[in-house]
Amino acid sequence: MNETETLSRKADFPGLVTADGDPWHYLDTAATAQKPRAVIDAMARALGEDYATVHRGVYGRSANMTLGFEAARKRVARFIGAASENEVVFVRGATEGINLVAQSWGAANLKEGDRIVLSQLEHHSNIVPWQLIAERTGAAIDVCPLTENGLIDLDALEAMLTERHKIVALAHVSNVLGSILGAQRAARAAHSVGAKLLLDGCQSAPRMRLDMDELDCDFFVFSGHKLYGPTGIGVLWAREKLLDAMPPWQGGGAMIEQVAFEQSTYAPPPQRFEAGTPMICEAIALHAAIDYVEKVAGPGGMEGLFAHESALAAKTRAALQSVNSVRLLGPEKSAGIVSFVMEGVHPHDLGTILDEENVAIRAGHHCAQPLMAHLGVPATARASFGLYSDESDIDALLRGIERTQKIFA
Ligand code: PMP
């Protein structure tokens, strides 16, 4: 993929220019991705001329909306290599997906003495839901350490797992360090003691080819807004048999079979977990996002996008290595995410100076305070890439860092 290609790709994203029409060097795609025109248009159509509710209407518009909504579920299933669309539960985002698993599967399967494994680098949304269910059930949490270069330490995971461990919940790709989990090995380790594996796929879904069978996990969650789709929609994937054994977590319309005051019965999955009017337009726009991403990826598929972004990350690391005041964090080989700290400059100050140069990075704890504690820093600066990123973004970042150095010298 060359720079001309990404330049033309940038033109698909109205968000990638400033109010003055200058290029905006958006390096915060790990937080949320900019939206291509195709997604914005799909959302506008769904909210406009196509709009109606799903599943209930007998009129044509509603029937069409239902077809569109369910087509989105099928599209997600195909994108992640799921066996059936019945394995795809629409949720509000990854956070809700993890809360669903913790509260439904967790409440039914965890008890006093059971243990949950998380890693040191997890996002708060893959920590707090487990703390809440641990409190309710009497289960306890163990923390899997990291290797020196910031990968989840699978030797340590294998050594710590016992029959008391019921679930292992890990980030597929770290949102701070870009480190990539050896998911299959983690799955083998979890399954060897009869535990389930949940993968937080927030950062992998927009960057990697996914195949649920190959990954061999039990639960997979991601957010649509990081995959160039809208906010307010995400996915929980699990095999039908596992979903079918899980109790509902929220009650309401659409998730029932029969309701009587004496007792109600529930619909099979995925509807059992989708109480209320769903995110109709968001699902349809997510469909458009996946179509766009796969079109851009071309015959090389998601592997091509991964290679493009991780090459940009490697270039950024190589360039930052020669800046004396910069300390890089995380592994050399990563997805398109680079975290660093600058000696004597708070990441927030760096972020503010870069903003003046039309460069947007993330500065803070990235919702990973336990990882910050482990790294011994209160915050990091993070540059993260998307399919529209190119070397002009890295150049702008480096110019801004140089200027920051001069200001703080
Ligand atoms: N996990 C990871 C690794 C993330 O990067 C994020 C978003 N920063 C989340 C979970 C939470 O995603 P959301 O806020 O979209 O639910």
From TrEMBL:
EC number: 2.8.1.7
InterPro entries: Aminotrans_V_dom (IPR000192), Aminotrans_V_PyrdxlP_BS (IPR020578), Cys_dSase_SufS (IPR010970), PyrdxlP-dep_Trfase (IPR015424), PyrdxlP-dep_Trfase_major (IPR015421), PyrdxlP-dep_Trfase_small (IPR015422)
Reactions that this protein is recorded to catalyse: (sulfur carrier)-H + L-cysteine = (sulfur carrier)-SH + L-alanine
SUPFAM superfamilies, per the entry: PLP-dependent transferases (SSF53383)
Organism superkingdom: Bacteria
Alphabetized UniProt keyword annotations: Pyridoxal phosphate, Transferase
Cofactor section: pyridoxal 5'-phosphate
Enzymatic class: transferase
TM region(s), chain numbering: none
Keyword Transferase in record: yes
GO biological process: cysteine metabolic process
An MF annotation (GO) of this entry: pyridoxal phosphate binding
Pfam entry (one): Aminotran_5
Aminotransferase class V domain mapped to chain residues: 25-397
Function of the molecule: Catalyzes the removal of elemental sulfur and selenium atoms from L-cysteine, L-cystine, L-selenocysteine, and L-selenocystine to produce L-alanine.
Similarity comment: family membership: Belongs to the class-V pyridoxal-phosphate-dependent aminotransferase family. Csd subfamily.
UniProt protein name: Cysteine desulfurase
Gene designation per UniProt: sufS
